[in-house]
Structure formats: C-alpha cells, structure tokens
Amino acid sequence: MNVAGVILAGGQSSRYGQPKMFETFEGLPLYKHSLNALQGNQLNPLVIATNASLQPSFGPENVQWIIEQQPHQGPLFALHHILTAFPEVEWFFVVASDMPYMNAPFVEEMLGNINDSYDAIVPKQNSRYQPLAALYRRTALPLAKQLMEQNKRSMKVLLDQLRVSYVPFNENCPTFININAHHDWLQTVTKESNNE
Ligand SMILES: Nc1nc2c(ncn2[C@@H]2O[C@H](COP(=O)(O)OP(=O)(O)OP(=O)(O)O)[C@@H](O)[C@H]2O)c(=O)[nH]1
C-alpha cells in the first residue's frame, strides 16, 4: 500500500523560544529522528511541511518540501494542505518534529494497524491520544476542509468527528514525549545523561 510519510515542521516554537526542530538530541536535529523513523519504513513520498523562513535551516534532505505560504496556521491546516497536495496517496503517516524518541519500530507497529474501515489510526497512551504521531486516510479531507472553512483549527475536533481506531501503547513507552518548552528539553537531556 502507498503510504506517505509527513513531518510537520512549520510550527512557531513560541513556548520554546527558538525553532525546536533543529535542537540536537543524540547527535541529530530533532526533525531527523522523525525523518529516520519514516525512512526506516520505506514510506513514499517523504514530505517535510514547513515554511520559507525555516526551510534554509534543514539539511539537504531527499524529501518533497511543502512550503506553507501562510506560516503558523497550525497542524490541522498543515494536514489539510498535505492531503490536498498529494491526491494519489491514500494514507499519510503524520509526525511532529519535536519528538526525540520517535522511532521506526513504532511507525512499523502503527502501519500494521492500517484498516480501511477508519479515517485515522491514532496511538493512545493512558487516556491521552497522540494526533501528531498518527495515520490519516484521504477520507479525512472533506471534514478537514470543512473545519478550515469554519476556522476551527483543532485536531481534537477533527478526531471527534472521524472514524478513528485508537491503538493502545504502554504507559512507559517514551515515544510520545515531545518538547514544548525549555523545561521539557532540560528534563529529556538530563534523563538521557543519567542513563549513560
Ligand atoms: N507544517 C506545519 N507544522 C506545524 C504548524 N504548527 C505546528 N506545527 C508542527 O506541529 C508540531 C507540534 O507543534 P506545537 O508544539 O503544538 O506548536 P508550535 O507552533 O511548534 O509551538 P508553540 O508556538 O509553542 O505552540 C511541531 O512539530 C510543529 O513544528 C504549522 O502551521 N505548519
């Protein structure tokens, strides 16, 4: 099956204070952890969705670039843009670029849960679901479009109205840790150096 891999890397990083996708974790910029997880599963096409001011700071990646003309419109806008830009693709693995522990086995497990009875396959840990490490099917586009037209930008509102299969993950699984503010980063880096 043709599944695209998409990295959302056009956020404002306002809580972090500088573009967080370029912070280095275990020798690689954060966005590369997401890219490697997708690349490890031969997803095609591989896409980085960002904006013109951030794009020059990425490495020369072998991906297709989506450069959002209106920056910082949020993940739902980015998802809507991507579903529209690749009309031949049925499923999209969409992942944020601020998840230091993103990894290929997680992506593989999620791919194993693809089921055409659903519009989205979303991981869930404890009671929290993770819309930015999830699979979206082309059938999500009409609702995403409708929400954009109503200026509703919430992934939660989208998922509440789609047919979603939630995939449970163990509460100790670190995959979903993401960096919002500096203290998240300090916690992650400190934990890593204590583990060494
Ligand atoms: N392509 C794209 N990605 C986005 C956009 N907004 C957020 N993202 C990405 O979505 C993921 C989660 O973003 P958030 O942390 O919620 O938002 P943020 O704008 O990056 O950060 P804050 O300004 O602190 O809220 C990150 O990987 C962002 O880069 C957007 O408008 N376009």
From TrEMBL:
GO MF annotation terms: GTP binding; metal ion binding; molybdenum cofactor guanylyltransferase activity
Stored InterPro entries: MobA-like_NTP_Trfase (IPR025877), Molybde_CF_guanTrfase (IPR013482), Nucleotide-diphossugar_trans (IPR029044)
GO CC, alphabetical: cytoplasm
Binding site for GTP: L8, A9, G10, K20, D98
Catalytic activity: Mo-molybdopterin + GTP + H(+) = Mo-molybdopterin guanine dinucleotide + diphosphate
UniProt keywords, alphabetically: Cytoplasm, GTP-binding, Magnesium, Metal-binding, Molybdenum cofactor biosynthesis, Nucleotide-binding, Nucleotidyltransferase, Transferase
UniProt-annotated location(s): Cytoplasm
The family this protein is said to belong to: Belongs to the MobA family.
Biological role stated in the UniProt entry: Transfers a GMP moiety from GTP to Mo-molybdopterin (Mo-MPT) cofactor (Moco or molybdenum cofactor) to form Mo-molybdopterin guanine dinucleotide (Mo-MGD) cofactor.
Protein name: Probable molybdenum cofactor guanylyltransferase
Taxonomic source organism: Lysinibacillus fusiformis
